[in-house]
Amino acid sequence: MKSLVSLIILLGLILGISYTSDAQILDSPRDGVFDEINLPDKKPLPYYPVREADVVWRKRIWRIIDLRQKMNQPFYYPLKREKGMKNFMTVIMDALREGTITAYDQTDDQFLIPLTYQEIENTLNTVDTIPKLDPNNPDIILGYDYIPREFDPSTVQKLQIKEDWFFDKQRSVMDVRILGICPIRKLIDETSGKDLGESKMFWIYFPEARPVFAKSIVYNRLNTAMNRTYDELFMNRLFASYIVKEDNVYGRSISDYAQGMDALLEAQRIKNEISDFENELWDY
Questions:
Q1: What DSSP letter does each residue of 61-115 carry, written as one string?
Q2: CB neighbours of 271 closer than 8 A, spacing ≥ 6?
Q3: Do 127 and 108 touch, CB atoms closer than 8 A?
Q4: From first to last of its 284 residues, what are the pLDDT tens digits of the chain?
Q5: Which end of the chain has fewer beta carbons closer than 10 Å to its terminal beta carbon, N or C?
Q6: CA 24: distance to chain centroid?
């Protein structure tokens, strides 16, 4: 009888501790002045429908967003996850892991070859091989230690954007639609620290990723009560960029025929060509 009573008391203590622990989690202080309840249900604003017959002019552009520029820092930070906030590359990797967006091979920006998350992970995650030396004779290798190195989102310092500019005669406006985004990471030799250049990772189809971006908060340095989302940054063109290619009969990028200052002037020429087309429509 005494053992039964002791067992009941012990179970009661365990349940009481468990309840107290859960209560502490559920009743934790609110980190802010209000509960952010609208974000989980937030959806991207739908595109305005466009008919083929209404598009009287179109130009395809590829541009680079350098995340090191001050205006683009909201894409790069925070480097580590914070409550309700992640950097742009972490948002993409989490969505790929969950299967909510699809990645496509980096060699083709036409979204023809889908990639699995396992394929991407095998490419990005590396293993460091460290030899184990004989303490009595350093020239003798006893074996090797294999240390996995996970992908670091901070190595992604640029984004390539593929977009279409077009004039819609039905609305009488020049409009732009982003089609794809390709993260570009910087490659560094871990042992020597040597810069190995840059590498394209994969393409994602922007319209498919918009629902994910619409639920990802971006820090607003002017007013944190009005934090934006990544979808709003793209749709409102709140980023700095430069053009690296326009569609042409040769399929060439600007770097294939111009370097240095000539490349910058060529990119500016393409940019001016788009704005000049719109301005000339309204000349009287």
A1: EEEEEETTSGGGHHHH--SS-BTTB--HHHHHHHHHHHTSS-EE-TT-TTS-SEE
A2: 243
A3: no
A4: 556 555 555 555 555 544 444 444 445 666 666 666 666 678 899 999 999 999 999 999 999 999 999 999 999 998 887 777 899 999 999 999 999 999 999 988 899 999 999 999 888 876 666 677 777 777 777 776 666 677 889 999 999 999 999 999 999 999 999 999 999 999 877 666 777 889 999 999 999 999 999 999 888 877 777 788 999 999 999 999 999 999 999 999 999 999 999 999 999 999 999 988 888 876 65
A5: C
A6: 35
Classify the C-alpha dihedral 273-59-216-116 as positive or negative. negative
Cβ-based neighbours of 58, under 8 Å, separated by 6 or more:
164, 165, 166, 167
What tokens does 226 get?
């009005």
**CA–CA distance, 16 with 53 (Å, rounded to integer):** 70
> How far apart are alpha carbons 170 and 53 in whole angstroms?
9
What is the 8-class DSSP label of residue 16?
H
Residue the block writes with tokens 């002791």: 6
Q: Which residue has the tokens 């954007």?
A: 161
The owner of tokens 């039905």 is: 170
User: How far is it, in rounded angstroms, from Cα 259 to Cα 246?
Assistant: 16
Q: Which of 161, 149, 151 is nearest to 89 (CA)?
A: 151
